[in-house]
Amino acid sequence: MLDEALRERLSRWYVQAVGASGIAAIGDPDISLGDLPSEGEPLRFSFEIGVRPVATLGEWRGLEVARREAAVAEQDVERQLEETRERLARLEPVERARRAATSS
Question: Is the full-model pTM beyond 0.70?
Answer without folding.
Answer: no
